[in-house]
Write a structure and sequence with these properties.
The protein has 14 helices and 21 strands. It is an alpha/beta fold and 401 residues long. It has two domains: 3-18 and 251-397, Beta Barrel (Lyase, Ornithine Decarboxylase, Chain A, domain 1); 22-236, Alanine racemase (TIM Barrel, Alpha-Beta Barrel). The chain has a seven-stranded parallel beta sheet with strand order 4-5-6-7-8-9-10. Strands 2, 12, 15, 18, 19 and 20 form a six-stranded mixed beta sheet that branches. A two-stranded antiparallel ribbon has the order 1-21. Strand 13 (270-271) and strand 14 (277-278) form a beta hairpin. Helix 1 packs across helix 3.
Length: 401
Amino acid sequence: MRFRKIPLDAFGSKPIIRIRNIEAVVHNYRLFRDLGIKTNSRCAVVLKGNAHGLGMSDVAPALYEEGVKEFFIEELIEGLVLRKILPHDDVNIYAMAGLLSCEEESFMTHRITPCLNSLSQIEKWNAFCGTNTTGDAVIHLDTEMNRIGLSCNEVQYLAERFQELTSNLEIKFYMSHLFDIKGHDFDNSYLQLETLKNFLQILPKKPVSFACTDSLVLLPNSEFNFQIIRPGIGIVGGAPNENDFLKGTVETLEMYTKISQVKDVKKGSTIGYGGSFTAQQDMRIALAHIGYKDGYLRLMSKTDQTQKGGWMYIGNYKAPIVGKISLGITTIDVSDVPDSVLSEIRYAEVVGPNVKIRQLADLNGCYEIMASLGRDNMKIEDYTLKDFAYRFGNHYCTEEK
């Protein structure tokens, strides 16, 4: 157990510090790349959501220097940002949301490839490219996720008229997306694989990208990997489940917040808005200066009605959340934290060595927490780990309780 030492002047005038480990992102990419090599699959990277909250402007150049040339983002606007960061001719950017209204000119001008998700998008992009030049495209096949991508009937229609519908397009590859890899029952994944294979039998032969690269069970399986893997949350140290992460991956985000107003609460007293938490014994609480407007999700609140809530750490001592997380304040139980520690350490670990982002993602049901905490915020003093270590050192308390 270890706890990062942070001099209070590192916070400046702000109550929250965020530390982003860009070198760890590169390290994680190498692990996925090397696994892809074993199945003869090249490794692209998904950077949607501003690189999952870690900052595209820092993450993308570091990955490019490592040799990454293929990047997936969500909408066109993310692609425009990424193209400014990586203007190089050898960088391919794929927009997974596809071609939305009035975007054709921007896609062409900025060399961003749309992942076409419907027949209408294919027809629109093909018509536009016919008036200019051949345009690159990816075709997204919906293998019964019923989200984005061509449906079974649309795939059949496309197969029958492929040359006509794509006469002005260079189809780089097909892609699809797995929807059920959180548990250890992969029946749905194999059903999707069967659907995808049926599609590929009637379509012209192209490379394929099937998103299984955040699943430890499916990752080594060349039957799923096809020609292109595209890790997303795994690149930033996440995984479908808390305990099913790729061995060797490193978490990439730390967050700390100032604490104040340590006070005693009597048994039977309520805490926070709505009196939603009742103290079952005398306890001591503190205020952590982070709330839901800072991306700290209310799902981690601990009330009388919830089975479990989130937690923070002060020194090497766990401090569970009590009551509802409010807009800018979270109340934590510091009953087990010695007075000597509370007097010395005036901040709490929100995410870090003792509060894993994987654990918070499991608690919240998804990695929304990562993107939420990664948003720009006037309350947050933001550092890369390299910059923080240079200015303040890279020191930890490692003593046992």
